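WARN no homologs supplied; continuing
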Amino acid sequence: MNADARPSTVLDLPAMKAAGRRIVMLTCYDAVFARLLDQAGVDVLLVGDSLNQVIAGEETTLSATLDQMIYHAAAVRRGAPRTLMMVDLPFLTYQVSIPEAIRNAGRVLQETGAQCVKLEGGRPMADTVRALVDRGIPVMGHLGLTPQSVHALGGYRVQARDEAHAQQLLTDAYALQDAGACAIVLELVPAALARRVSSALAIPTIGIGAGAGCDGQVLVLQDMLGLNPGFAPRFLRKFADVGQVAGDGVKEYVRTVKSGEYPGPEHTF
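OK structure emitted
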């Protein structure tokens, strides 16, 4: 991979870290946005189980299904056939047993064209990660705030604030790396800890609410485009106000239809 190229496989990600090239990741759930993100130069598309909240309107990610993830990931792949794509394994599709994790992760790669799956958890999931990697299924880890454990964590809050929990997170990161994970998402952890973990690992870290010391960043697409105006955590920067533009466009459509201005002669066959 040359210095200007985007990653084409998961093996490119550690190479990007070694070269000091920051990794740009965004969530994506459909073909239209996939084309836009691909054309904009996004390195990695993540079909996150956050679609259960963003697209389906649920409170948490917990009720997302494997079929739901596969449906959206296949659409993203059609929109961006050459971009590196990762897919979240939803709750209870990998925690029950290693054989079930292999079967479900295999389905994701087989039915969507994704190059990698992502799962949550540290040392308890290391054997599962190793089993997947040994069978040719690349894995990205996820530490810190793990949304599938939101109830056990007491809500969406910053994790590992004290040294004991910070050391545990670092140990978990090493366990995932040793198991063969290609990268790790760090979510809602103190910036100093994220920098410490990133410096310690050979594989890249992708931060969300984890400061600038990670090797890359990820945001939920609809959040950073201003399509979720009620969601404004400290870590989120809104890079556009698409929600306002879209709302204005819909209002103008309503006005012109009701007034009889649309469709005009130029829109008629």
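The first strand starts at residue 23 and ends at 27.
OK
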